[in-house]
Design the sequence.
């Protein structure tokens, strides 16, 4: 589990504040601009932390105990207490750690030059920017790690011309978390098939993600902290019970946990984003509005629909990128 007992005062210091500028980071900014690599050593970072709201979690558990079957209530209670929150200070610490490992790997090569992969306005661009102060070697180019193997500001031929003379032909992708590993595997598989040496530098990963990347010959650099999947936290019988949970909410929509059928789905969120439904149990921990009927005071033959509001215990987290 994550130990978030780290001072959150750091969250009150924006990286793009002029008072935090240093000669080293200014030089990094200049070097990246000359290479036309769209990374920034002063990225926007979360200003507050978003831990679980304990009071609301207790209200959710109370609702489950009073309104659901005992077995389902117990499983949802277990689920609520297994939600994992990664704070930004913990992320900073682990990101620095994995970049230090990358530095050692690059130092041991004949030529430490590499290209860095990211997608504009996505998490890997933001995380790559956060990593800049810790990198001993800056990238010499950049590419977009998707199925088409698109390349930065350069044509593919020009990119291959730069890569080919390098003995190791190294590519680096840095990101924050890998939950199922599917997206990262798809984006890197064609690259590894072309003979490039690829580093996936990701502080927080699930066992599922690690196994998927190992299958495509990617060198993984990660921390010792794992993102547990629902299927690792619960028995097969408990997962089947979770799939049976159906709670009618406002507009007679149904809150369902059938999404846990995805074996990579997790209960981990961070100070900078809630993962997509493929990675996080969809809507879990969000506010529930439960309809109930009361007699119509003007006509007893009819009923009025009112709502019992169960406040969410997982905060809404804005993305900084």
Sequence:
């Amino acid at each position: 589990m994550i130990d978030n007992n780290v001072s959150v005062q750091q969250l009150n210091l924006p990286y793009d504040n002029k008072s935090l500028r240093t000669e080293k980071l200014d030089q990094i900014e200049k070097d990246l601009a000359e290479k036309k690599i769209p990374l920034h050593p002063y990225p926007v970072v979360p200003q507050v932390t978003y831990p679980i709201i304990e009071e609301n979690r207790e209200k959710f558990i109370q609702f489950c105990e009073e309104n659901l079957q005992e077995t389902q209530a117990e499983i949802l209670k277990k689920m609520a207490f297994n939600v994992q929150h990664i704070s930004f200070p913990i992320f900073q610490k682990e990101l620095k750690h994995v970049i230090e490992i990358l530095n050692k790997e690059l130092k041991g090569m004949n030529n430490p030059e590499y290209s860095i992969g990211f997608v504009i306005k996505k998490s890997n661009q933001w995380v790559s920017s956060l990593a800049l102060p810790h990198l001993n070697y800056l990238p010499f180019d950049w590419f977009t790690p998707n199925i088409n193997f698109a390349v930065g500001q350069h044509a593919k031929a020009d990119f291959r011309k730069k890569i080919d003379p390098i003995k190791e032909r190294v590519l680096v992708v840095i990101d924050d978390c890998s939950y199922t590993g599917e997206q990262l595997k798809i984006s890197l598989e064609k690259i590894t098939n072309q003979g490039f040496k690829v580093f996936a530098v990701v502080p927080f990963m699930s066992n599922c993600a690690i196994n998927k990347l190992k299958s495509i010959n990617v060198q993984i650099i990660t921390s010792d902290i794992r993102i547990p999947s629902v299927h690792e936290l619960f028995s097969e019988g408990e997962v089947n019970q979770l799939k049976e949970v159906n709670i009618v909410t406002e507009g007679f929509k149904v809150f369902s946990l059938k999404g846990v059928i995805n074996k990579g789905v997790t209960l981990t969120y961070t100070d900078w984003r809630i993962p997509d439904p493929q990675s996080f149990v969809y809507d879990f921990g969000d506010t529930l509005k439960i309809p109930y009927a009361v007699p119509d005071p003007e006509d007893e033959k009819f009923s009025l629909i009112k709502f019992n509001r169960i406040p969410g215990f997982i905060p809404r987290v804005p993305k900084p990128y």
